Prior knowledge:
Blueprint: H1 12-20, H2 27-34, H3 49-65, E1 76-82, H4 88-102, E2 107-111, H5 115-132, E3 139-144, E4 147-152, E5 160-163, E6 184-188, H6 196-202, E7 212-217, H7 224-230, E8 239-243, H8 253-263, H9 268-275, H10 289-297, E9 308-313, E10 322-328, E11 331-332, E12 338-340, H11 345-361, E13 366-372, H12 377-386, E14 392-394, H13 408-421, E15 425-426, H14 430-438, E16 441-443, E17 449-451, H15 454-459, H16 466-473
Parallel strand pairs: 1-7, 1-8, 2-5, 2-6, 6-7, 9-13, 11-15, 13-14
Antiparallel strand pairs: 3-4, 4-5, 9-10, 10-12, 16-17
Amino acid sequence: MASLSIKRDESVDEVLARDLANFYADPLGFVNYAFPWGEGELAGRQPDVWQSKFLEDVGRQVIDRNFDGFNAVDPILFATSSGHGIGKSAITAWLILWIMSTRPNAKGVVTANTAEQLRTKTWAELGKWLRLCITRNWFHYSSGRGSMSLVFRDMPETWRVDAQTCREENSEAFAGLHSASSTPFYIFDEASAIPDKIYEVSEGGTTDGEPMWFQFGNPTRNTGRFFENCKGKFRHRWNVRSIDSRSVAITNKDRLNKWVEDYGEESDFVKVRVRGDFPSAGDLQFISSELVENAINQMPGNESSAPLIIGVDVARFGDDQTVIYPRIGRDAQSWEIKKFRGLDTVQVAGRVIEMMKEFEIRGRETNALFVDGGGVGGGVIDQLRALGYDPREVHSASSPTNRAYANKRAEMWGNMREAMANGLAIVNDRELKEDLTGIEYGFNLQNAILLEKKSDMKKRGAASPDMADALALTYAQPVAPRMMPAGGAMIGQIKSEYNPFEEIA
């Protein structure tokens, strides 16, 4: 840590602020100045080669933009994929402290793939480096649950950075940070698993001031915005790098080499966890992005004799949505998908009936109606049966017909995946694509395929796959087409003048 040269009538903080002004465009210089390298717990330590190069590149980007404090400049964008143990959390802390110490009224948001990762790793690492930092007395650091922040003591509202979970319902926290005369900034840790919605909202924070956006993570999925920023359609906008764990001084080379021996240099395991490269088919990704794109581009054929099947996934939690998805044979593309939030069981039943009647007008009998019977779905089923309809109740945890799958849900998804490989046409919808490619899988003790639970997806920051679950429900059982009976009423439907929205209009 540097010593201060104090002039007459200057306080220590004034001298420190004067010195730090020299590091406005020099984050590596700040890191070397602000921490006591070679002393105490940093004895024998120094920034790694990749970290030094990274910080130098950031500094050059600052100089190139020539920010004057008034006119907005293009954002500084860095996306870094890496293997394990390279020091991502440390450089995250350094970037936060450099920005906050050199830019009055800077405002930032930091997030990670799970709340636990954010609290115990990312934010804890910031606390460690703040304790060692020459500007530690300037800031108040909070690490409590639901209240993780770093604020300038004298200006806590306008000069601060907050840690936010990346759940989609928290997306408002990532909206425009409004720091026109300073630096609004975002840092995403384990960026591969952060929902695309968070990325989209964060774009609004890069339109004023001297914005910066840093993304780090193991590249576990070859879908989503992190992939697109590193390898896909947005790559030209970002400063992209990939860090092999074997090239970093602090990593355990013996452990890394054993992984390579066990799994192979070209395995997805080594690509993701050692080389910092994206997997060929998604790390534990049940449905590949290639398969989804093929299904989107598939033109539906003549399905006039195929059965009409409707799947209904009923919302369980406040941020989930109820989805009603119709499919006629291999055509899941030509029909409107209904999505709702905040409806009770009576209202959901009404919406289902409305869709069935719409198809009836077109001359289409609903041959099967599959409803998820878990949670509040049972209430929807009861309402439909009370009105004379015949929904088929499906329980995700029930036993499958095919013992290659651990339960009914995995089997339905497996049937859906097979259908996509055999010509199923699906809607070009962002939510649906994310749902289909976002779910991961594993195996139970019997080596049967077991899909990730919705609750586990939420814990790692992914959205609940409501649309995909509704489509998967249409593959719960084989369905044969049935003829419209005389009189025009659907089989299992009572003839009545019932208006499903009479009581909820």
